[in-house]
Design brief:
alpha+beta, 6-stranded antiparallel beta sheet, 3 helices, globular
Amino acid sequence: MNVESYDQIIDSWSCDLLLQECKSIESLGMAGNYWVGLDDVPHNSIEKYAQDCFDFYLKDQYPTAVGLEWWFHSFVEDDKMLAFHFDCDETVRMEENRMILPLRSTVTYLNLHRSPTIVTNVVQNSEDPNNFGPKEPTEVVYSVPGPGKFFTFHSKYLHGVTDGNAGRVTLMYNVWDHLPQRLHRCPYTSNTLDSHFYKCYSEYPQEYLGKTKYC
């Protein structure tokens, strides 16, 4: 499977900076999916982090990229989960019933937690929402959260998070070669501080393939 895991690409100060900005955006009722172009002047530290992270770790792999779609998840209750899904242009999916996928999906973990990101080898094969398979996964990888950990995977894979998530905070950005419909810049502005990056090398995440009853 086309997945990569980096143990810790930013320090604890940077994790706290991004965590506080996520909380500020949420408290202002601004949580949602936003856009930042690779050449845009960042309006906040999250945009700056996403641009720098792409430059340091993904730029050489995606020369046609033009911008990043970013958002965050901050779970309050343990009984909530993130349903298994494919990342896509949600406007096109809902209005035209077509699956247009980004070039790459990423997760940055901002705190320690026990609930992993789960990625399966079930693949979206075309723009037809029903054209995916295998119907039951034969490969599954797990990425367990840790402060500053960075996890990336091809956007064609079905992925999600099960319940038991209280306190889990993650920052995501997807890499696009065009601007998805109805995405715009986040209205939140800050002092736009730089995150402190470490140079890390990718590893293959933990893999599990055991007996399954159904999916």
